[in-house]
Amino acid sequence: MKNTFRTFCLCVSAAVLLLCGSAIGQQKSFQISPAATVMQTVGVTDMTVVYHRPGVKGRVIWGGLVPYDKVWRAGANEATMVTFSDDVTVAGTVLKAGSYSFFVIPTHGDWTVIFNAQPQWGAFRYDSTKDALRCSVKPQTTWHEEWLSYSFSDLTASSVKLVLHWEKMSVAVPIEVNTEAALAKASKNAVSMSWQAYNNYGLFCLNSKSNLDKGLEAVEKSIAISENASNLRMKAELLAQSGKVDDAIATAQKAITVGKAANPHFDPSEIDELLDQWKRR
User: Would you list the domain boundaries of the chain?
Assistant: First the structure.
């Protein structure tokens, strides 16, 4: 009995040690420049930046830690990676869908931005023959950013700016997407596109107040798949924002009729508020 109990204790101890060892093995190592990821969807195109964030820590950055006129990995550790799910246009030049190492050459004037097709650690093996795109961008002096950051600004249904910001300097790279072509491609590749997908694009155009005609086209496709109060209301709001108030009123009234037919408990109050606003114009 004692031997059996001892054997049991040994087995339990071994299991605990194994689990502890496994947990320790899975722990992440501390990074002085922590990893970060930022994502943005523009229209239907996904953009992702994966990078590491060095800190200023009282150091001279531009012309010091980061020399002028030399290729810089635009972050710490591995070269910053930028991924596009569809073809994009960067500063007027087409860049194919895919993942790219992102480099920058800081200068006293305009900076050179580089999208390179070779993933790598830092910029030590940088090969200019692998450059997929280069462009010049004017840096801006701005507020202090202790930890290097990437963000997306000036978002519309078909464009955005990728912003690198560190210390008191920022660089904004203009990026455009052909949302209509990407949407058509997605429609072709999908077995079926849901009415919500087209309706969501219409909502994006409505909120960004851009490409209203394309938003209406998308909502018409949504209605063709499944006419309901939601996409009819979206169509009405897009029509109103386009200045076609009479058509908007007629479509909103239809949205209420369709909504009540589908659900006896349908609440038309929000659409009624829109109708009141439009009728007072």
Answer: 35-177, 192-279
